[in-house]
Please model this.
Amino acid sequence: MIPGPSEPDPEVLAELSLPILPHYGPKWGELYQDTLARLQRVFRTSNEVILLPVPGQVAVEMAVLNLARDGDDVFVCANGFFSEMIVEMVKLRGANPVVIRNDHGRAITGKQVRAFLENRKGVEGRPLFVVHNETSTGVLNPVREILAACADRGVISVLDAISSFGGIDVRVDDWRADFCIGYPSKAVGGIFGVTPVSISKSCWDAARRNAERIPSRFLNLNTWRKYIDEWGAWGHPHPTTMPTSVVAALHRALEMIEEEGLENRLNRHKVAGKKMREGLEALGLELFPEKEYYSDTVSAAKVDPKLDSSLRTELLDSYGIMIAGGLGELRGKIIRVGHMGTSANEAPIRLTLEAMRAIMTKSPAATPKSVIARS
Model:
């Protein structure tokens, strides 16, 4: 019950036991291209999609390397651990991070971004980074309005949808997201090892203009363009060996999304998030994020520091349930419970809440009224 990786469905795991495909040739090429087509439907885009055999963080670094240039301003919406990480990436790139910041637990709003961009000159063609679903705080940033503000000023938008993709609505074309990063092993329910990225023409063009200033071969979009164009016809549209079994597992997870129906799946995550938040409040815990911006894939609640470690330890030791604690400045102050993919269902949510109730009832650090009343 952590905010990723989620537990894959047994049908997804079964794909890993099948014979390994080579990473080129007609059979692989067909599987790879069909996987990309299914990813486009989850991204809701006609933009080109690629699969990077890297963690999600590295896909974010690809955007930084290709779209940011030495000494240039790069805009970053920062209101949590993972968005602050992007600030560090921009600095390491040699660019200048210009941060639109809110306190952890509060959302970055479209109005805030629009006012920021309107007060600056020369923003056209510069990248802006925003995390859709900040798993470190349980905040869902209203990215539709943020991306609209970017598009209206000619800003290239980079959307980290790693922990929302497949569980919370992502509309790349409608929202005009230029570089959008998904993930297989959170709400999609696949296996980690590849990261899907949707890339607009604006990003390909920017990478071509920056070609001589991109300090990477593998993460250079121009390298990927070369292999897609020159090697794609014989089933090798990527500049490296691919973890083919991981992609096959992702393909099965995407098939299962279509069997369930994307809208049904998004609604299942919405219902799961509501049930988890109601359950945490019934235990006497105060939810951490602003009410208007609750996430449907991860819930965060405040805890007494004494309860934080003991609760998570006993959940794992006594019940085999893993939840997450706070990161960075929130360490020891909040717990984070994932409900994504297979865990966005009534049974695991009920089991988790009942196990928490049993532990908190006997814990000297927990005295919520609901627990006292039920004990």
Q: What stands out?
A: The radius of gyration is 21 Å. The chain is about 45% helix and 15% strand. The first strand starts at residue 48 and ends at 52. Residues 366-375 have pLDDT under 50 and may be disordered.
